[in-house]
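It would be a great kindness if you could assist me with a short task in structural biology. The matter concerns a single protein, recorded as an amino acid sequence and a row of backbone structure tokens. Kindly check, if you would, that the fold set down in the tokens agrees with what the sequence suggests. Thank you for your consideration; the sequence and its tokens are set out here:
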Amino acid sequence: MIRPLRPFSLVGPGRVGSSLAMALEGKGWECRHILPKDRSESQRRKLSSVFPAADIVERASSLADDFEILFIAVQDDEIENVVDGLLAVNNISWKSKVVLHTSGVKSVGLLQPLRGRGASVGALHPIAAFANRYQPRSASEIYYDFFGDKKAQSVARRIAGLLNSKLIILKNERQRMLLHIASAIASNSTVVAIRSAEELVSGFIHPRDAKALMTALLSSTVSNLSENEGMKSLTGPLARADIEVISDHIKALESKKTLLQFYKSWSLLGIDSLLRDGHDRKSRLKKIKDILSR
């Protein structure tokens, strides 16, 4: 049986790590140790103020064997080095430990050396946008994906439940990669698209108003997405198969090559989806597709 109080340690108190740790402490779990990359005095003071019961350590060898779960929330290319550092620690018995890294793409195999020492391992990846550190709300009421050992999966389920979140269990590393790409398309490309839209009108609309305008438009789009299936949320010239308007758009963007390429790419993807959904203006959509492909 999993006890309500679970002592854990954290390597990498960045945006994801610090927010997740705060969220878990808010549910009664206890952060025992934090190993930051930034070892400045100002960072130490900040971490000590947020996690007063945690021991802020400078190296893996300073970790005490008094935690059950270890989160590795460093940048993807640093995970292997962290594992190497942990393997050099002689005072930790890994047989009773669960080690979770939070990367959405790096293989769980990176934790294999710790599994070889007896630890249960897995990847617990939050599918959310963490824009800032120390934001426990960012780690709650979201989706997480998991791939790894059974014991680690049990802990992942407990974490998701505590944080009022949903857990998606994945079967292999390819599924993890595809989900991560899908998440990047849904979130990151939206940020790029909105920022590009703001810049497009920056010459005649104040940046503050442009941001408010595009954010309001995005909010209405998200509302439509939540209420409609498939491409029924799509509005504008592509949904109407308006050949003339789309042709005018292309002409207006001729001097902005990168933005024009972006416009054409998402429009082509949209046409393919509309055709799959059985749009009633197939011939017009195919003509638009020809125009966009030039």
Observations:
- Strands lie at 7-11, 30-35, 55-56, 69-72, 98-101, 120-127, 143-148, 166-169.
